[in-house]
Structure formats: C-alpha cells, structure tokens
Specification:
Catalytic activity: 4 hydroquinone + O2 = 4 benzosemiquinone + 2 H2O
Family: Belongs to the multicopper oxidase family.
Oligomer: single chain
Low-confidence stretches: none
Helix content: under 10%
Distance between the termini: 41 Å
Number of strands: 25
Keywords: Apoplast, Copper, Lignin degradation, Metal-binding, Oxidoreductase, Repeat, Secreted
Structural class: mainly beta
Pfam families: Cu-oxidase (PF00394), Cu-oxidase_2 (PF07731)
InterPro entries: Cu-oxidase_2nd, Cu-oxidase_C, Cu-oxidase_fam, Cupredoxin, CuRO_2_LCC
Shape: globular
C-alpha cells in the first residue's frame, strides 16, 4: 500500500489551498504499508521489510493510495510479472518497473533468486510528474526485500553487514516510459475471460481535462499562476460545484431544480488547440452539471489533456463501472484518423486511467449500472447519471 505521511493537518492543507487558490502543500514523505523507510531523516527504523525465501514465487497486491501522485515502483535485482490491473486479469508482462496512479491496483508475481544471494534489495517508489505549475512530493520511499539466511536459526533477521542494492527508476518526467508501459497492457480476451468491448457506440463525448483559473476575490490574496488568479480544475471548462443535496436523492425524488442541471456539454463549447498555444482567457465556469446516459447505452469517451497551464498527466477514476481503454496518443485527438487505430480486440479493462500529458485517451463502456457516479481525480470532477430502465 503506497501512501503519504503528513505532519500537518490534512484538512487544514486543503482549506488553505482552497482559500489561496494555489497548489496544496505537499506531504512530508511517501510510505509503503504506512512506513516511510530509511531514505527520510529519522525514519530508518520505520521501514517495511518483505521477508522472502529463495526459489519461491510471491504475489504482491499493490495499491496506490497516495492523494495526487503517480508512482514508479521497482525492486533491485528482480523483475516483476504484471498479471492483473484494477482487479481484472491481463496478458502477463514482465518488467523491471511498474507505474501505478492514485486509485489503481496492480498484482505482480515476484520470483525470488534460486539460492541465498547474500544481499538485500531496496524496493523503491518515486513520483512521475510533468507538472510545471502544480506541486508534488518529489521524494523516494524505500522498503527492503530481505532473504532468509539458511545459515541463521532466527527467522530472516536483517543482516546490516550485507550490501543493499538499489534499482534505477525512470526519470521523474519520463513520459515515453509511461506510454510504453501502459500501451503493453492487454486484456486476456479468452473464452473464460472475454473482453466484451462495445463495437457499436450510441453516445460519444470529448472531454477536455486540465487546469484553468478563477479570478481572485476582491481584496483577496491569491497564489495561482498570477497574483490575481486561483488555480481551478475543469472538464469541458466546467469546474464542479458539490451540491448541498445528494445528487442521487435529487434524482430519485425528481427535485433536481436548483441542485443540478442535466446539460453537461458533450464536447468543448469553444474548441481550441488543446495541446498547443493556450487561449488568452484561461478562466473556467462553475456549475453542478450532469451527463445523463440512457440505460444500456454504449458510450465512447475521449479525454483530451490540455496544456493551458502546462501539460500534466491526469489519472481519472469512474465510479460504478469498469471500462475498456481502446486508444491513446499524444497531441490533439483526431476524430477521423485516430479511431482507425483503436484496439477493439483485447484492450485493457480498468476503472482508473491516466490521461497522457499533452495527449488523449479513449475509453468505452456500457451504461448498465443505474445511479449517479463521479468521474474524477480530485479536484477534476464530472458527474454521470444513469437512470434505471423505467425512468
């Protein structure tokens, strides 16, 4: 379990960021199973140790529970075979390093060395980020892979005299590694585990995701990209406002007026060069708007990253559904050329996907789970509404 360690009150951190409009203060450390490890000051004793025996195969169930950081993970001297992402089997791939975004899970097989190696091995996790205006914790957390010494009667006591080997992680902004890794993930697509990808599409959407600005309040002090602005995340130029009445309750009682409006734009109202020169006006609108989907509809959603305030990868999670990642690329999505390269045979099935920095990703799913669901990565949020068959 990858997480973060804070000495500050996290509610106070969020409150300050909302008041100033700047990026939130970063965490003091990353953690593995709650422990920051020996690479941080004063925490050498607070280190997660994975004790193993030679010639065995172990399954590691990896979860990224960090707030806002995509993480590289690697174990020195060992390769990892990825067999599952977001609780769905994939065609196994063997790698030295994985990438896991907030909210994602990854199961890997770790095969230990055939005999006692006389060494211990760092397990490292460090962030992937291309953000220029944003803030992130640029540190590395370490755990230790420790072999049981067959000559020792005690159970896998850590021998401080053994060399500790360290893996080499990708550079913090290694977008080509990320694209190559995510592009290798494929569903099993077998008779037992089929990839039931929608071939026909009933509804198509293009969502731009990224950072814009809000004007600073009168006589206010702001810490956005300029002194008179605040950072504001948006989808199709709409920055989500959380209502005081539950959305599902408003839908169920038929009293949506004043709570939400069902007119979320299916595409940007004002198209622009999404990954090129940003528009002069970077302000975004506020609203509580929903995408309403007919029950059972087959949906294609293209999420287009923007570079309005710098290109950044955006992991997005769809509540209530799994989806198939049928395509991805860099630059602006081309609705004429790009769909010809979709993978409709064995695309990976997920519930969380990263929108590439200065790029796009296309997903497909069936709207067959009635309810209202967020599609979000804090603070980027959109809301889906799927009525039941009788609505």
């Amino acid at each position: 379990m990858f997480g973060e360690w804070w000495t500050a009150d996290t509610e106070a951190v969020i409150s300050q960021a909302l008041q100033t409009g700047g990026g939130p203060n970063v965490s003091d450390a990353f953690t593995i199973n709650g422990l920051p490890g020996p690479l941080y000051n004063c925490s050498a004793k607070d280190t997660f140790k994975l004790k193993v025996q030679p010639g065995k195969t172990y399954m590691l169930r990896i979860i990224n529970a960090a707030l806002n950081d995509e993480l590289f993970f690697s174990i020195a001297g060992h390769r990892l075979t990825v067999v599952d992402v977001d609780a769905v089997y994939i065609k196994p791939i063997t790698v030295e390093t994985i990438l896991i975004t907030p909210g994602q899970t990854t199961n890997v097989l770790l095969t230990t060395k055939p005999s006692y190696p006389g060494a211990t091995y760092y397990m490292l996790a460090a962030p992937y980020s291309t953000a220029r205006p944003g803030t992130f914790d640029n540190t590395t957390v370490a755990g230790i892979l420790e072999y049981k010494d067959p000559a020792s009667p005690s159970p896998a006591a850590f021998n401080k005299n053994l060399p500790v080997l360290r893996p080499t992680l990708p550079q913090i902004n290694d977008t080509s590694f990320v694209a190559n890794y995510t592009g290798r993930l494929r569903s099993l697509a077998t008779a037992e585990y089929p990839a039931d990808v929608p071939r026909e599409v009933d509804r198509r959407f293009l969502f731009t995701v990224g950072l814009g600005t809000h004007p600073c309040a009168v006589n206010g002090t702001c810490q956005g990209p300029t002194n008179d602005t605040r950072f504001a995340a948006s989808v199709n130029n709409v920055s989500f406002v959380l209502p005081t009445t539950a959305l599902l309750q408003a839908h169920f009682t038929g009293r949506s007026n004043g709570v939400y409006s069902p007119n979320f734009p299916a595409a940007p109202l004002v198209p622009f060069n999404y990954t090129g020169t940003p528009p002069n006006n970077t302000n975004v609108a506020n609203g509580t708007k929903l995408v309403v989907l007919p029950y059972g509809a087959s949906v294609e959603l293209v999420m287009q990253g923007t570079s309005i305030l710098g290109a950044e990868s955006h992991p997005l999670h769809l509540h209530g559904f799994n989806f198939f990642v049928v395509g991805q690329g860099f630059g602006n999505f081309d609705p004429v050329k790009d769909p010809a390269n979709y993978n409709l045979v064995d695309p990976v099935e997920r519930n969380t996907v990263g929108v590439p920095a200065a790029g796009w990703v296309a997903i497909r799913f069936r709207a067959d789970n009635p309810g209202t669901y967020q599609f979000n990565r804090a603070p980027v949020t959109c809301q889906l509404d799927v009525p039941d068959q009788q609505s």
